[in-house]
Batch of 4 targets.
Target 1
Amino acid sequence: MLEACENYQKQSYRNRCYILGPQGPQMLQVPIVHGPDKAISKVRVDYSTPWVLQTERALDTAYETAAYYGHYREGLFSILESQPDTLWELNLALANFLLKGCGIACELRPTCSFQADAPDDYRNAIHPKREDGIEKELGLGRPYYQVFRDAMGGFTPRLSGLDLLLNEGPGSLLFLKTIRK
């Protein structure tokens, strides 16, 4: 289940992620149209700036030598270039892309109502503006291959699942299967 009834949260991972570029971690951000409706499923993506082109260029720079980038690039770019109207539609398309790329058969279903305290609730467990123990708790901070790992002095944690997929491809599933529950 994906939370479809919450209000959009500024400065959260709902419209940003981090990739590893030649200069280190780089934030990719989807601009949104600030309007009266704050429901996450209604927040519109702002295409008045060239963020899609900038994102594609950043991905090319960061991952052009990654083992699986050529395999996934077209599918990823087709999602960005289709310009989904809402952040919800864009995030859902990207989540399905990542799941399929990792070889995970999963149906993502939106919630019908907001539940403040849902079981296995990770909505607020991970946030770009504060440290958390979620990576350690789930065993996700362990290294996998990254294109710029040597230039960065080793493995860089807290990146998008896209980093894992583009570097490890179908091997991402093996990495994810070892998550602690």
Target 2
Amino acid sequence: MQENSYAKVNIYLKITGTKEFNGSLYHTIKSRFVLVKNLYDTISFVPCKCKTFTIEGIDIPKEQNLIYKAYKAFNLHTGDLEIIDFFRFHKVVVKKNIPFGAGLGGGSSNAATFMRMVHKYCNLLISIDELAKIGATIGADVPFFIYNYESANVSGFGEIIQPFKEESLNIEVFTPPIACNTKKVYEAFDNYCQIDKEYQNWQKIPSKELLEKINDPFKLNDLFAPALKVYPTLKQYYKNGYFFSGSGSSFFKVK
């Protein structure tokens, strides 16, 4: 039982405001997410007698791991004892290739892939839409990965997903040895930046065409400038013709 857990890039990312969700204030966005099919982790369910829910391959405390949060969210939402029983006899093994703090959605992709695998192998009687709603309680990028669209327009907190039909893109990703903290980058946006509304019809333009038309990483991604404020050494890694993904630190281009 093994599935690929793909990275994503943000072709564009515009901050549209803030809104309360589950008692907290979150930024709302408009963005184009595209899967990077040549960069992925693998998630495996491996037979093993386990006293507790077990994850191997990620060196962070289990309580901070989005896979574990997904497991807890499943139990809270469904109350399905089959899930608990399944993971008494299977452990989760993650083979990591997607860097941490890279703006590529690695943790969210892992959680979503885990959820789709549980949905499949535990025969859960819930829809993909309901699965995505559970995913939204874990992380803003999780619903996109649950739907597994190759390209989609994403808005709201990340929970509104509209598939976008376009040609497959050959994306090259470059990640500097810097791990960006998403919370700090968003805080820098709030302190130093203003909302830019110059993105009215971007959701209708194919990704490759949009990159060629705008051709400015600062205009395409509202988080590039605040990321440079928090991590000024990022500037030395920027290469002409590359674009900034998410809250960083990765740069990408379409070959």
Target 3
Amino acid sequence: MIVGIIPARYESSRFPGKPLIDIKGKTMIQRVVERALQSKYLSELVVATDDQRIYDHVMTLGVKAVMTSAAHPSGTDRCYEALKQLEKTYQYVINIQGDEPMLEPEQIDELAIVLKEGKVELATQIATVEDAETLFNEGEVKVVLNNQGEALYFSRSVIPFVKGKPKEEWHLHYDYWRHVGMYAYRTDILEKLTKLPPAALEKTESLEQLRWLQAGFSIQCVPTKYNSYCVDTPEDLQALLPMIR
């Protein structure tokens, strides 16, 4: 059984209260919830928040909400606290980003499919890099894989280096991947992740998943054809509005 958990924190340094902002007549969190409910493989959907306003709003949508600590450093920690409050036992948690109002339900299902045998510890999504601008954008996290499709490393830098070719052509000489930030955790692994101390690699790149890799956990990477549109700032929202129906 798989539970989808949407972390929804009210405070945000760049966009306070964004789960409740109006987007063409619906709140951000409502749009994410409605899309996540279309997944074929989730046994339950839960919103994990630290704010009573978000909690009350989500309950009007007919979806379960749980209150969690405002002190969590990441969505992973918030997901684990929410999981402990649920009555049912689940094999996996899928952490669904609460600031992606154009989330495709198929993205959730793509992750869920690789979890069927119960062997995968962690999974996340990746998409191809098609141009040099994306490749050299430090906001786009790149990932290199082993032969089993598991992550070897994530970085804000371009990895690998292409020797002897102009940088603007690197994406033509190697199949680069960028990270799409939705995670699936086997529940026993999720508990272990929340007990790990911050790692040097994580601190250096400011990437939570490097803590897991450095500790020896495996992360299965699942290709997706869907674009990921994350709203971090009011400017991000304005750029997205023309695409939202």
Target 4
Amino acid sequence: MIVGIIPARYASTRFPGKPLIDIRGKSMIQRVYERVSASKSLDKVVVATDDERIHAHVAAFGGTAMMTAKHHPSGTDRCWEALQQLGGDYDYVINIQGDEPFIEPTQIDELATVLQDHGVELATQMIPINSHEMLFDKGEVKIVLNDKDEALYFSRNVIPFIKGVEETEWHKHHKYYRHVGMYAYRKDILEQITKLPVSALEKAESLEQLRWLEHGFRIKCVVTEYESHCIDIPEDVAKVLGLMGLK
């Protein structure tokens, strides 16, 4: 069984109250919840929040929400607390971003497909890079893979270096992927990774998943063709609506 958990904080530094903003007649968190609920792979969907206003709003539109502590440093930690409250015989948790109001349900199903192999500890998604601009964008996290499509490393820099080739041509000589930030955790692994100390590589790149790799956990990477359109700041609302053809 798989539960989809949507972490939703109110006190975002760049966009306070973000989950409750109106997007064409519905709050962002309602749009995310409804899209996630359309996934064929999830047995349950829950919003994990630290704010009574978000909790009450989710309940008002008929969704399921639970209160979690305010101190959690990441969505991973919030997912673990929510799972403990939820109980049940869930094998995996999928952590779904609460700021992607037009997430494709099929994208969740793509990730869930690899969870049929209970040997998978952690899983995430990736999308091919087909341009020099995207490859060298330090805001995009690149993934280095082994021959089993498991992550060897995540970096904001370009890895591998292509010797003897102009940088503008690198993407034509190697299959590069960028990270799409949706995670699946096996229940027992989720408990373990929430107890790990912050690691040196994690500090350097500001990427939580490097902590898991440094401690020997395996992260399966699944290809998707769906672009992620997240809302980080107020100006992103119009931008995302435009990308979706809804402006």
